[in-house]
Amino acid sequence: MKKYLLFLLLVLFACQPGLRQTQLVDVHTGTSGLELKFFDTNLVDVFESSYFDMLIELRNHGAANINEGKYVWITEENYVVAEGRTSKGVFDLQGRTPYDPSGGFSVVESRMTAKLLPQLIKGYDTPVIFLACYPYKTNATVHVCIDTDIQQANPRKVCKPDTINLRGGQGAPVAIESVEQIFSRDQATGKIRPTFVINMRNLGNGHVVDSSLLDVACGSQGGLSLLRGTSVTGEIGSAGFNKVSVSASLPSGDLDCGVNPAILLEKGKDAAIICRVNDNALLDVSAGTFTSLLSIKINYGYVTSKSFMLTIKKFI
Amino acid sequence: MAEDEFEDIVDEESGEVTGFRRKGRKEPERAASEISESGSHARESSEELDLDSREHEIEPEESRERPRRSPDGWAPESHDSESESGRLRRAGNVVRESGRTGAAIHAFTQSSRQVFANVVFVIVTLGLFFFSGGFLSIWLRLGLVGVAVILLLFMNAPGLRQVIQNLWGGENRNVLRNTVVIFIIGLIITLAGYFSGMFSAFFAFVITLVVTIIYVLLHLDVKHGRINFLYYLAPLVLMTITAWVFGSPWAGIVGLLAGCIWLGWEKQSIGVAVIVGIVSVVLFLVILSLISVEEEPEEGKVAVDPNSRFGRMIALQQELWFRFIRTFRDVPGRIKQFGQRQVAIYSEDIQIGKVDKYAVKKMGLFLDNVGTDSKRVFVPPEQPGRFTEPILVYGELSLEGFEDSAPVNVRITCHAENLTGNVSGLVRPDDSFVMVHGDPPIDIGCVINPRDLSDGQYMIVIDVAFNFKTEAYMRGYFMEQTRLRAYTREKTDPLAEFGISDKDPKAVFTSGPVGIGVGLGSLPVPVAEDMHGPTVKITVEDLWEGRLGNVESFSFKLPPGLAVTAIEGKNRPGCDSACGTSDPCICALQRDDIDSLFSKKQEIAGISTLRINTDVKDAAVLLGNAPLAIRNIEVAASYTYNLQELVPVAVYHERVQP
Q1: What is the pLDDT of residues B167-221, one digit of tens each?
Q2: Which of A102-116, B292-306, B545-559 has the weakest average pLDDT?
Q3: B364-465+645-653 has which fold?
Q4: Which CATH code is given to the segment(s) B467-641?
Q5: Interface-testing mutation among B492, B625, B634, with chain A (most A C-beta atoms within 10 A)
Q6: Can you name the CATH fold of A34-135+304-313?
Q7: Distances from the Cα of B196 to the Cαs of A281, B186, B206, B208, B209, in angstroms?
Q8: Which chain B residues have a beta carbon less than 8 Å from that of A221?
Q9: Domain parsing of chain B, residue ranges
Q10: ipTM of the modeled complex
Q11: Is omega for the bond preceding A118 within 30 degrees of 0, making it cis?
């Protein structure tokens, strides 16, 4: 009986329909960048006048690498103090790749001291905040339809230059939402100028800052730079907050996204930038209709934080 | 009166309009039919019947109040008798003669005249009752009131004979029979209790009375007899009964409310119920205060033997209501204070803190188990060698203090008070001593010689004063001004960006009788070099039922980098030289400043608030090295607090019998 049973099991489990093929993960999806998570062991009460280690996990869930990200611990210094050399620091993290879909991972540790509580108080809740400021970028490659037949003479085109929706993100907190395609005749040359309206939005949990102001974003001084953004453009009145710089290119060459390719990306709202083909890359009408690849890159700094209430208790 | 308030009366046989009546009110003929139904006497005498119908054809007394209710609801009853039709025609003719407007005026005048007569009668009667105290005995005055009540019934009723007939007629006969049966059953139960001793006969008798009266009030069809004056007595009766039976003013109030609700329902008028309720309370208290249970009753009061059961009941009620009124004496003040406090919180004139949630015990000095064994003291005549038992009010003092905190100095005083004055007592074992954390509870007593007190109700008041300390800690968020402006311009909440959910932190204060709140205005506080710092508001609030006495010392500590420029608009010494440097700024107020800052005139709703103006002296120190600085303000106050407990005592001096 046992023999038959073994034979049956062999037949059932031996006949698999071929080897499973490894599927590569598309890492250019989602709206996450750096994800922060306190270790559960930290979320317990501590006693006054004692040391404890704060551990936080940093994981890059986005598609871009983080180089020279900065962090700082913020505490209520009357009661909790992070040891000097661990109160701030720098980190690097690889982004997600098809071969490492979980992204780069790191643990930041800080030695902290819970100070002596006042004499009459029995316990105290105090916030512990971890603030990270890091450079990030959003890359997207979009199939666009180049259509020089603006008179619509050819009814049988290979594609139509409709608006392209890119919902779901590109593996970064700043996401390209859609690309509109506009084709117009250049009055001087009579050639066709492809123009693209790129709509984007901050879909992450943090806020965007000019990538050159990361030190300021994670430091105590330099608020004026954030207010005026002087270190980027020198233009008075242009804020350093929510600022991203955008570049786009077609196989034929880079697009012209304006003199100042930095735009303000107000949280929760769409922002748009117009990029168009340079004068030297205009298309003849005879070029017809064909598909091409539009490459878009957005550079910015990103600030994200995580906090929790630490309870300090008195020794009774 | 507008004409649309009237509707035509149509003869059911001929279909012609024979008169009119006020809308929603009873037809004239219905009143007559009621009289005809009420007894054969009215049927036999057509003249009397006609007279009665005329009396009611404009506005019968009962019909002025509401339409008559049919057995199954509020719909008017139908009339189909021939005699009623005839009367209807007669009534219509009378009304038509004077015209619609004239009839309306006549009806209004008739109604108003009767109401006016009632009001004048009641006022005159009450006036005679209160102002005849000097030359008429109380019994005579009460007798006069009784006569006045009977006269009032006559004024509002067509005739006493008819009232009696209506009382005995129809369903009322059954009601009265049932009433007698209920009372007899109750009496039997009472006697059973009296002879068996298994339960209180007195209590059973009171219950019997209550049930009987409630049954009568609920079932007796007094409307037909037009003696609905009884309705108005219901709240007072129910209040008296419930207060007596349950021995609590609260029960009396519940009884009163029940009576008022019933009256309001029956009369379909909230206004009547409210007015009668107020009048009932006043009457109850007046009657209660007119009874004297003292050996030597005051002139003009009804004397009751204090040793009799009735006397003891009266004494108990007087004591209960005295305490009850005393409790509510401060209610208007408290309501006003509550309102002021809410307005002040809304306008941020005062700051509210929260008690240290990790303090497992309520801290402070507690006076518990206060009582006396001699609530009623009978003082024997003074004779050589005869000992007089003193009045002893006792209590237990316990301290819940902080470890390592300073000793608590306790001072106790006591006295007996009534409306005329105070008599001091002696405190045992000592009127001042020191307690420290961990001390066991101490029994204290207040001894008062009853010979120092005249007859009457007294409150023995025990005052306990002790020193205590409260500390408070307030977290504030500080941010560089330009950075904050950048956030504001981008319409971004800076605290949310830092993951801070506690955006409006409250000061945490240590457990005790006083609470301390601290406010910094809108957070985060903007910081820049050489700019004005936040205005720090510190509120000291009395949280217990006692009274905050003197503030002995008051100090606060500001974060490093801030300096104090003024307290309540004045430069005051007391802040140390570290203010504005990298060390915290500690300020201790001087004695004179404390006295002026915590004076009564500074209080809002009994709460003192200080406003401390600051300057930023070193922004870098204040901000530290992070984009958001979390800094602390600490406050400490030492003060004297007064507890008070009251115990009612009645004193009676026994007289030597001649």
Answers
A1: 666 666 777 788 889 889 998 988 888 887 777 777 778 788 878 877 776 666 5
A2: B292-306
A3: Jelly Rolls (2.60.120)
A4: 2.60.40
A5: B625
A6: Immunoglobulin-like (2.60.40)
A7: 119, 15, 18, 18, 20
A8: 480, 620, 623
A9: 1-69+79-163, 364-465+645-653, 467-641
A10: 0.82
A11: no
